[in-house]
Design a protein that fits this description.
This protein has one domain. The chain has a two-stranded antiparallel ribbon with strand order 1-2. It is mostly helical. The radius of gyration is 16 Å and the shape is globular. A hairpin with a 2-residue loop joins β1 and β2. α3 packs across α5.
């Protein structure tokens, strides 16, 4: 097993365990005052992805079902930090920066396919889940409240799946991204 593969097999289960907390951190940023529009769009798109009925990897797939969600949140955080984040408290930016930094692991893992995932996550700004488009989330306090309530519900009920420390899981994960990401 290569050093990189060992790193992924150690890191990805941690991301699965923290997915609910990561979503809550981004939700807190989304509702914070002073966050720039571009950063809010990136974060809202990432959070809304959690509720897409057809995501890149079905949530029920053993070991890897929620890793696409973890990857999308990290790419969305990286996209948000690439924007002028606005006037936001340091603690909220710290959580965002941490997720964005972990996005580099996603970049390393996906290699040549990372650009396709990044484009997909950028496109989430124009997509919808549960009838909620990002523009509507940002423009309507009631719709924003629905999303934030859904994120909190997800975080409370989320049960991290097991992740076997086996190379075959990395192969399956790459294969899903290669097959499902728009070319």
């Amino acid at each position: 097993m290569s050093e990189d593969q060992a790193k992924y097999l150690d890191t990805f289960p941690t991301w699965l365990r923290s997915l609910g907390d990561d979503a809550e951190s981004l939700a807190a940023l989304l509702e914070a005052e002073g966050v720039s529009e571009g950063a809010r769009e990136a974060v809202a798109g990432g959070l809304n992805y959690l509720f897409k009925s057809l995501d890149l990897i079905p949530d029920g797939i053993d070991d890897i079902g929620y890793l696409d969600d973890a990857f999308v949140l990290r790419v969305a955080a990286a996209l948000a930090t690439a924007e002028d984040t606005g006037d936001v408290s340091a603690d909220k930016l710290k959580a965002l920066a941490s997720l964005a930094e972990e996005g580099e692991v996603v970049r390393d893992f996906l290699g040549e396919h990372y650009g396709r995932l990044e484009s997909y996550v950028k496109g989430l700004r124009k997509g919808a889940a549960r009838g909620r488009a990002v523009a509507d989330i940002l423009a309507d306090a009631n719709i924003m409240g629905e999303l934030l309530s859904d994120v909190r519900g997800f975080s409370r009920s989320y049960q991290p799946p097991s992740f076997a420390r086996e190379e075959k899981n990395l192969i399956k994960l790459r294969a899903f991204f290669d097959a499902k990401l728009p070319k």
